[in-house]
Design goal:
The complex is a heterodimer of chains A (about 350) and B (about 350). Chain A is an alpha+beta fold and about 350 residues long. Chain A has two domains: about 200 residues, Beta Barrel (Thrombin, subunit H), CATH 2.40.10.120; about 90 residues, Roll (Pdz3 Domain), CATH 2.30.42. Chain A is about 25% helix and about 35% strand. Chain A is built from nine helices and 20 strands. Chain A is elongated, with a radius of gyration of 25 Å. Chain A starts with a helix and ends in a 5-residue tail after the last helix. In chain B, about 25% of the residues lie in helices and about 30% in strands. The longest helix of chain B has 26 residues. Chain B has about 350 residues and is an alpha+beta fold. The chains are: A alpha+beta (about 350), B alpha+beta (about 350). At the A-B interface, helix 3 and strand 8 of A face helix 4 and strand 8 of B.
């Protein structure tokens, strides 16, 4: 019993020391990081106006993206591939209102929403100057007076090529159509249950005459996109759903993406943008879609993807007016009625 | 000293390149109190933010920081290179006009291998790997084509780094990509010790070997490895290169990568004056060789062992896989055993994929 007590005493001391270390690390370490509220506070005056034009986009009660109010009639621009019906938006003053998806630009992964009802909103002003040079400060606004995250420009505007999608099969031609010769391990095809000798007759309802036709059709999709395969297996006809993988990951294994995933989740759609500004702001996927602000208070871009451990992408402000014009025209044509968010992911890239 | 070697190199540089840097440094040093700052707000003390580790307090301070960051980013990018050795892609930084390139030891691999050095404009030149100090992950290379090359200075070893000090990283995350210049990130120093500088400048595979700059554009570290958190980005301290410069230039390779060194699997009895084992861990090389708690080690690899710390030094001097003789006393008996040295496996920190 005496020993036990000594043990308890020792344990007490050990926990005391651990507690001290923890408190030390809590009090000293985070204070010296870049992204602390102390540093963010200095950005308050730069983002004051833009925060009021920022919204949280919610699907089914979940926060899925940020958005920017882009017209005084209550249109909101946001990241398309994160959306799911039904949509609502939370505004700066705290109110939550219903929103309708009225237009989509798949190439830029942008969606235009319309807030329901008449309310007083102010559109963001897109910067008319050139994008800020590498090293410039950037703030990402939320619904608070402090930015949700800050960073600097890492790379000047450039095209972000689309990552190559992969189904993960080796195909051969047969009289009945493209036939599966081999299914690669850990591939989209393996997960979907595709088997050797299956013949793929249709992709999303489109007939596939031969191997090349199927390969070309897959290449037009994106990693993470869903496809419906019509498959002949012996005498049976099956419908198989598959979520496309990524080619480099399939070829080089998980190591290719492993390190990029250290430190947080990435956006599902994070490649294939005609132009983007790369910056080192740490964002979660559901913090994309909103305004990116320079020190002069102008909106220099719209965050479009959390791309890797080290970077995020923003669509440069100079591109937005033309895209917006197209979306508004599209909204008028269709009235928005037929659009459902699930179409967004599955639409093939036109180019 | 070793440093004179580098300084000598700088002294013989072409006047234009050298003047370029002097001019830049002069700008960096004098710009704040005079031209830039005076026009806006003579109150902004950049030194206390960038080097003192203070947070900016106002938009005005952020603006002065920003102008400085934009200038620094240009210079930093100009001397950052991509490195291709075999199938491995990494980064590096030119630190002399004649083309010495600092990188990480795990990028170069072994000395005297042919490498391609990719300049920021995409042009590729021939290079060669030189020495590698694996324990700290410090590696040296040389561009084999005539310079002069744009370069950055190394920070002086006498100037201590401060927690909270601001810093800037460049490199080629994911490997060199055509059409993308070296990628700039800004952060602060979170921890420093003999083995590494830890910052919140985020790194990923491909950044290995790229430079960590202080806010005057001097190289203070080289990107090396990461942990799971976004705040766990480790850089080789610059004095690892300065202290071993002559060996690196002579293409020596020594030491072990962190977490991969030799080990045998014993714990010493700290109260004993001799190398008496307190514990032999099951499944380790020591256990397989037949060592037991209480054994007193007399000789390891034919060298005399006086106490446990001398045994540790001798083990560190071997390579994993080496076969060594161990002479020991067990009670009244003296025995000789054979042991195959094992390799540590420490999963705590991830070396950046090249």
């Amino acid at each position: 019993m005496v020993f036990l007590r000594v043990n308890y005493l020792l344990r007490g001391i050990i926990w005391g020391v651990i507690g001290l270390l923890l408190s030390l690390s809590v009090s000293t370490l985070p204070a010296s990081e870049r992204n602390t509220s102390l540093v963010k506070r200095a950005f308050r005056d730069a983002i004051r106006e833009v925060s009021r034009s920022t919204v949280h986009v919610m699907s089914d009660g979940r926060r899925v993206a940020l958005g920017a109010i882009v017209t005084d009639e209550g249109h909101v621009l946001t990241k398309a591939s994160e959306l799911d019906q039904p949509l609502r938006c939370q505004l700066f003053e705290g109110r939550i209102v219903d929103a309708t998806l009225v237009a989509v630009n798949e190439q830029w992964d942008l969606a235009l929403l319309r807030l329901e009802g008449d309310r007083e909103v102010t559109a963001v002003q897109w910067s008319e100057s050139e994008s800020p040079p590498v090293g410039s400060w950037l703030a990402t606004t939320g619904l608070q007076t402090l930015p949700i995250s800050i960073g600097v420009v890492s790379v000047a505007e450039r095209e972000i090529e689309r990552r190559r999608p992969a189904l993960g099969v080796v195909l051969e031609d047969s009289t009945r159509g493209p036939r599966v010769h081999r299914v690669l391990e850990n591939s989209a095809a393996a997960q979907a249950g595709l088997r050797i000798n299956d013949v793929v007759t249709h992709l999303d309802g489109e007939p596939m005459s031969d191997r090349d036709a199927l390969i070309d059709a897959i290449r037009l999709r994106r990693p993470g996109g869903r496809v419906k395969l019509s498959v002949l297996r012996g005498d049976e006809t099956l419908e198989i759903d598959a979520e496309l993988g990524e080619w480099t990951q399939l070829v080089h294994g998980d190591r290719a993406n492993f390190q990029d995933n250290l430190g947080g989740q990435l956006s599902n759609r994070r490649s294939g943008f005609p132009s983007a500004l790369q910056h080192d702001t740490v964002l979660r996927p559901n913090q994309c879609g909103g305004p990116l602000v320079g020190l002069d208070g102008s909106v220099v871009g719209l965050n479009i993807a959390r791309a890797s451990r080290i970077g995020s992408y923003a669509i440069p402000a100079s591109e937005i007016p033309a895209i917006l014009e197209g979306l508004l025209a599209q909204a008028t044509e269709t009235g928005g009625a037929e659009l459902v968010a699930t179409d967004v992911e599955d639409t093939a890239d036109p180019d | 000293m070793s440093l004179s070697h580098i300084r000598g190199g700088l002294g013989s540089s072409s006047p234009s390149a050298r003047c370029g840097w002097l001019l830049i440094l002069a700008l960096l040093v004098t710009a704040f109190p005079s031209s830039v700052v005076a026009s806006e707000s003579s109150e902004v003390d950049l030194e206390s933010i960038f080097f003192g580790g203070r947070e900016p307090q106002s938009l005005a301070e952020l603006q002065v920081m920003e102008r400085h960051q934009q200038e620094l980013a240009k210079k930093a990018v100009a001397c950052t290179v991509g490195i291709i050795v075999g199938s491995a892609h990494g980064s590096g930084v030119i630190i002399s006009p004649d083309g010495y390139v600092l990188t990480a030891a795990h990028v170069g691999g072994v000395p005297n291998r042919a490498a391609r050095v990719v300049l920021p404009d995409g042009r590729q030149v021939r290079g060669k790997t030189l020495g590698a100090y694996r324990t700290l992950d410090a590696g040296l290379m040389k561009i084999e084509e005539p310079g002069p090359w744009p370069y950055a200075e190394m920070a002086s070893a006498e100037e201590p780094l401060r927690i909270g000090q601001w810093c800037l990283v460049t490199g080629h995350p994911g490997g060199y990509q055509e059409g993308r210049s070296p990628v700039v990130r800004l952060g602060r120093i979170l921890l420093t010790d003999r083995f590494a500088i830890t910052t919140d400048c985020t790194l990923v595979g491909g950044d290995s070997g790229g430079p960590l700059f202080d806010m005057e554009g001097r190289v203070i570290g080289i990107n090396s490895r990461i942990g799971r958190l976004l705040t766990a980005n480790m850089h080789v301290p610059i004095n690892a290169y300065q202290e071993t410069w002559d060996r690196l230039v002579k293409s020596e390779e020594w030491g072990h990568f962190p977490g991969t060194g030799p080990f045998i699997g014993v714990r010493g009895d700290t109260e004993a004056a001799t190398a008496r084992l307190a514990e032999v861990y099951p499944g380790t090389p020591a256990a397989q060789a037949g060592l037991q708690p209480g054994d007193v080690i007399l000789k390891f690899a034919e060298r005399v062992v006086s106490d446990f710390s001398s045994l540790q030094l001798l083990v560190n001097d071997t390579q994993p896989g080496d076969k060594v003789q161990i002479e020991l006393r067990r009670g009244e008996q003296e025995l000789t055993l054979e042991l195959v040295v094992g390799q540590q496996r420490s999963p705590s920190r991830l070396e950046l994929e090249p």
